[in-house]
């Protein structure tokens, strides 16, 4: 760990090295333990449908993999979104 201090003084700003940090995930999703099989086309289609300010709904009976697809899509697109992707139950 590093301890950071902020100082305030008159004069030019100093050249300080960048803070060393581990990049944080841009999501709060649990990656699947097993690979998603046979859903690449559907995942790609949903990724193409997601736009800022839009709502995409996955519908179907229980157990068909809606949550699995949503997690796969969300993890895939999270790096491209400034604030990441966050799951809320």
What would you say this structure looks like, in words?
The chain is mainly α and 89 residues long. The chain has one domain. The chain is 25% helix and 0% strand. The chain contains two helices and no strands. The protein has helices spanning 40-49, 66-77. Helix 1 crosses helix 2. The longest helix has 12 residues, at 66-77.
Strand content: under 5%
- Can you tell me the number of structural domains? 1
Radius of gyration: 20 Å
The best one-word shape is elongated
- Name the helix and strand elements from N-terminus to C-terminus, one letter apiece: HH
Summarize model confidence as the mean pLDDT.
86
- Number of DSSP E strands: 0
Q: Helical percent range?
A: 10-25%
Concise account of the structure shown:
The protein has one domain.
Q: What is the strand and helix layout of this fold?
A:
Elements: H1 40-49, H2 66-77
Helix pairs in contact: 1-2
């Amino acid at each position: 760990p590093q301890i950071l201090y902020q100082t305030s003084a008159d004069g030019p700003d100093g050249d300080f090295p960048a803070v060393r940090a581990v990049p944080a995930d841009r999501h709060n999703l649990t990656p699947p333990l097993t690979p998603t099989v046979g859903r690449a086309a559907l995942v790609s289609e949903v990724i193409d449908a997601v736009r800022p300010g839009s709502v995409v709904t996955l519908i179907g009976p229980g157990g068909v993999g809606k949550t699995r697809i949503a997690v796969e899509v969300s993890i895939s697109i999270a790096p491209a979104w400034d604030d990441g992707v966050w799951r809320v139950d």
